[in-house]
Amino acid sequence: MRYVKYSKYVPDPFDDLSAEDLLQMLQDFLLDSGFYNQYQSVYDMNPEHTMEQLHQALLEALRERGKIPDSLVEQMLQNWEDYQNSELAKKIDQLLQRLSEEGYVTVEQPNPTQGQILEREGEPSAGPRESKAKFEITDKALDFLGFKTLRDLLGSLGKSSFGRHDTRELSTGVESEGSSRRYEFGDTLNLDVNATLLSAIRRNGLKTPLDLDYQDLQVHQCEYQSSCATVLMLDCSHSMILYGEDRFTPAKKVALALTHLIRTQYPGDTLHLVLFHDTAEEMPLAELARVRVGPYYTNTREGLRLAQRLLSRQKKDMRQIVMITDGKPSALTLEDGRIYKNAFGLDPLVVSETLHEVARCRRNGILINTFMLAQDYGLINFVQKVTEICRGKAYFTTPYTLGQYLLMDYMKKKVKHIH
Q: Which CATH superfamily does the domain covering 143-163+227-412 fall into?
């Protein structure tokens, strides 16, 4: 005779976690700008991303979500060797494996021959979990984080209508929002039938059949919608993680959200990313999550120069620079390539050369919108001069409101477009 044994069902606290939930829980760790280890690795711009670090980050995230008791986590972290062989470690390994299987992270296993070489040299080889298995987040993960950030930011703004950028000009199209005008070659043939017939009657009188001529054709007008080329300038000087506040990580999240917005809602627009510090460099958007701040000064002029070169290649009606900074310009690239630095900022030479570059942007028809993450007098005075020269706008923001201001400015085009 067969016996069936019944036991009480104990649900797994991790069963309801999807790969997307795990990725969202780990986003602060994945997009870290060096704020939490700024004193240990300030010179390390390419830190290793090991699976052990990801394992610990997920353990902390589960504790913050209430999935694991605090006392248990503290006990496990104190005895890490015992924890490695526990059932909890195996379950978290399964969660991380789920991220890898669904294409959000790629895992690079260590070279097995390395352990053999260490053994020959008399050094102990690392165990399977202690071996430096590395991971990298994929483009799919970056796209998901950008979407989540964009949805969170727009949710805090209320209802927002997506569309292309409106201007004060009129063009022909399907949606009629303006008066009719005579058809010209190349216009969308969206005929205003009433105006066309009235033009023929006005020319030849009311008779049948009506004698329609080319000059009688009238078409509807709609609002002219243009494309926009944007360069996002991010300040990655050391001050972005100093003074007890992480300002660079929110800027990275906003850049991801803006990338997702442009790709899905404004396909005709372009976005380039420029990091400015001692110098300036263009950074592929796919590498944004891996960028960290460093022991750098603020070379604003070099960033503006690079941004202008990128915008000059774009044949767009509207070109703009969005600059996110928290410090005054404190560095300048000299003609011989040397970098002149002044840690106190507001150096007359640095400021004057930077303002000359702002004036060059104005002459080239490029707007500069500045989002300030600090409110000291020197920075306010400098940004006021920038806005006066380029007729852009300046926003006093915090890391928590940066995304709301920037996305609203981009979607509603609160800057003045000179036609």
A: von Willebrand factor, type A domain (3.40.50.410)
